[in-house]
Amino acid sequence: MFELFLLATAIPEKLSDPCLGDAACYAELAAQNGTDAMAEEAVAEEAVAEEASDAIAIAGEAPTSTDPNFDNLDPGSRAWGRKIDEILRQPRPPNAGDVISAQLAEFRGEPSQYAFNRLGYPDAKMTVEGATVYSWLNQTSNIDGSPLRCTVKIVVRAAKIVSTDFNGNEGACARFARKLDPKYRPHY
């Protein structure tokens, strides 16, 4: 019961924290209030956080949840904010849609056999207004049982691919992305 009382009294204090974990802010407040010991401690914590930040930046390592220098930063502090910015600025690997889109653009003007060589034989073929539409389908399910589906289509007129299209989920389209670019690796 006493622990519950402590928790209940700590919550309002946490919610009214003007610095939100920022050591430099605490140092300023401590200096204004004349508590030098608190100010020195806050400045020391900020220095440690900045050293960790600089060491990671110099080493070129991206902070991860297993990075002790990142995990020890206070959420809301300036050093923590800099780490988040650093992570968000890193280039993201291409997703399946990016790979498929770029690769399908190369199909235009090629004979249909070019698509068969890259994707395998199609799952369906139909003729619409004199054009032949070939489609490839990948259906699967996610770990939670939700359906995943991806369809790739090419339109052929006069023995040449004139149009390409795809539509689907990242997980299902990854299969086609790997066929089109063997270096592609899903990042999920």
Tell me about this structure:
With 188 residues, the chain is of the alpha+beta class. It has 2 domains: 2-89, no CATH class; 96-180, Beta-lactamase Inhibitory Protein, Chain:B, domain 1. The chain contains 8 helices and 4 strands, in the order αααααααββββα. The protein has helices at 2-15, 23-33, 36-59, 68-71, 78-89, 96-105, 112-119, 170-180, and strands spanning 124-128, 131-141, 147-157, 160-168. The protein has a 4-stranded antiparallel beta sheet, with helices on one face. The chain is elongated. It starts with a helix and ends in an 8-residue tail after the last helix.
Intertermini distance: 44 Å
Structurally, how many domains make up the residues? 2
Series of H and E elements: HHHHHHHEEEEH
Q: Helix/strand-derived class? A: alpha+beta
Helix count, DSSP H or I runs of 4 or more residues: 8
**Low-confidence runs of at least 5 consecutive residues:** 1-16, 52-64
Helical proportion, percent range:
40-55%
Radius of gyration: 28 Å
Task: Please count the beta strands (DSSP E, at least 2 residues each).
Answer: 4
The gross shape turns out to be: elongated
**Adjacency order of strands in the biggest sheet:** 1-2-3-4
Give the averaged pLDDT, no decimals.
Answer: 75
Strand content: 15-25%
Question: Largest sheet at a glance?
Answer: 4 strands, antiparallel
